[in-house]
Amino acid sequence: MSNGRTVILGIGGGAGKVIRCMAANKGASWLEFAHIDTDAVDLENVPGVTCLSAGSDWAKGRSCGGDPLLGEKAVGANIRELKALVADTEMVIVVGCLGRGVASGGIQIVSRLVREEELLAFFFVTMPFSYEGNGRREIAESALRNLRENSDIVVAVQNDLLFTTIAADTRANEAFAMADQVLADGVQGIAELVRCHGMMSVDFASLRALLKNREAHCSFGIGHASGANKTVEVIDDLFKSRMLGDHDFLARSDVVVASLIGGTDLSIGDMNQCLSMLGNQLDPATCSYIGANVVPEKGDELQLTIVSVHYKQKPALVPASEPAPSPAKPKRGRKGKAKVATDEKQFDLPFVEEMVSLGIFGNVPPTIVKGENLDVPTFQRQGVVLDLDD
Ligand SMILES: Nc1nc2c(ncn2[C@@H]2O[C@H](COP(=O)(O)OP(=O)(O)OP(=O)(O)O)[C@@H](O)[C@H]2O)c(=O)[nH]1
Ligand SMILES: [Mg+2]
Predict the structure, then answer these.
(1) What is the pLDDT of residues 235-280, one digit of tens each?
(2) What φ, ψ does residue 16 adopt, rounded to 5°?
């Protein structure tokens, strides 16, 4: 059973800023935040953020000067503290701005740790700006290659793209703060997926099975909207996210993980409309995991975060001689049509999408009779999927 404990760990100076931005976000108090760094200046004490001073006996509170080997050594020296930090977590989200020392080297240590501890981890990394030059780019690319070899989900965001929607005359420090806010909102959106008592929660065990130990390319996008037309506008805003890639790239995703959060006025109708519109953009073969939560602090605002996952190698087909996976549960395809897997040859994937809405019963203790939760509508308990188009 999900305990929902989610740790957001920032490595290095840039990531530390994103972590602090996130800790100040509306409705983020249920998350645990930590920041590991060698540089004492960047380890500024902020309520709600656990600070770990890496390699403190020899780094002596200074930066790693852009050397990833020193970063790896420094973070490696704190492995016990890191292990204690991530013990018994449902998910770890690691943030690192690649291109210099602490994050590029230290993230490899954390990647090995979460693998050894068999934790599900999302890695959100940024790649250096073009203007930073080839040296930093090479460090970042080498770090990203190593990370991808050893990690389940790596979302790499080009810093250049984070700035494309910001007006050219924005002051540099404001532009950085805005870019950090985009990352902070995206990470929070993903974290909301595992939140206990979500209005619509993801079947986390099957999401984990689908994403663990697979090499994949991931991109992420985020949309915000408020006002009367917010369910439509949030989709439009999502597609303005340059980090996401184009429509076609999204449509061809192997897996899409989407998280919708809104204030207390978020209705089932809003959710249906918004998520059906998103579903219409996806290929029928795309596995989608969708979670929705009410975060009262969001007020009138709606936020939709998605991660698009493309496997490097498509899942192997189950040989015809092996029994077909069972039971074949119905799943939703494009435009909400029910699909039941009946082919002899099927992709060896676990059940794809759980969309269980408890509506007004979402915040009360479940009524369990003979192992069934009576607060879940009968049609959902019986696996009947509605065709939302009709
Ligand atoms: N998005 C974003 N990227 C940043 C920010 N600050 C730095 N970066 C990027 O992060 C890269 C690494 O910088 P830092 O995080 O400061 O480096 P570090 O990991 O602490 O390593 P050392 O400086 O060697 O100790 C830079 O090359 C920038 O591309 C920030 O506030 N936001
Ligand atoms: Mg630093």
Answers:
(1) 999 988 888 888 888 888 998 988 899 999 988 888 889 988 999 9
(2) -60, -35
Interatomic CA distance for residues 375 and 326, integer angstroms:
26
- Which range (191-205, 216-230, 327-341) has the least confidence? 327-341
Q: Whose CA is nearest to atom 9 of ligand 1?
A: 97
Domains and CATH numbers, the chain: 6-194 (3.40.50.1440), 219-319 (3.30.1330.20)
Range 74-78 contact pairs with CB under 8 angstroms and sequence separation of 24 or more? 74/38, 74/102, 74/105, 74/106, 75/11, 75/36, 75/102, 75/105, 75/106, 75/109, 75/110, 76/106, 76/109, 78/36, 78/52, 78/54
Enumerate residues lining ligand 1, CB below 6 A: 12-14, 17, 37-39, 63-66, 97, 99-103, 126, 128-129, 132, 136, 159, 162, 176, 179-180
Q: Which residue of 44, 97, 158, 178 sits with most ligand 1 atoms within 8 Å of its CB, as the best mutation to test the pocket? A: 97
Q: What's the CA angle centered on 109, arms 107 and 112, to 5 degrees?
A: 110
368: exposed, middle or buried (C-beta count within 10 Å: 0-12, 13-18, 19+)?
exposed
The best mutation among 18, 56, 100 to test binding of ligand 1, ranked by most ligand atoms within 8 Å of the C-beta, falls on 100
CA of 97 to the centre of ligand 1 (A): 5
Q: Which two tokens stand for residue 138?
A: 């090479």
Count of alpha carbons within 13 angstroms of residue 154, beta-carbon side: 28
pLDDT in tens, 128-178: 999 999 999 999 999 999 998 888 788 888 888 888 778 889 898 898 898
- CA separation (Å) from 8 to 3, 35, 137, 286, 374? 15, 8, 25, 28, 35
Q: For residue 194, how far is its CA from the centre of ligand 1 (angstroms)?
A: 28
SS3 at position 184:
helix
Rounded Cα–Cα distance for residues 239 and 256 (Å): 14
pLDDT, tens digit (0-9, with 9 covering 90-100), for 8-50:
999 999 999 999 999 998 889 889 999 999 999 999 888 899 9
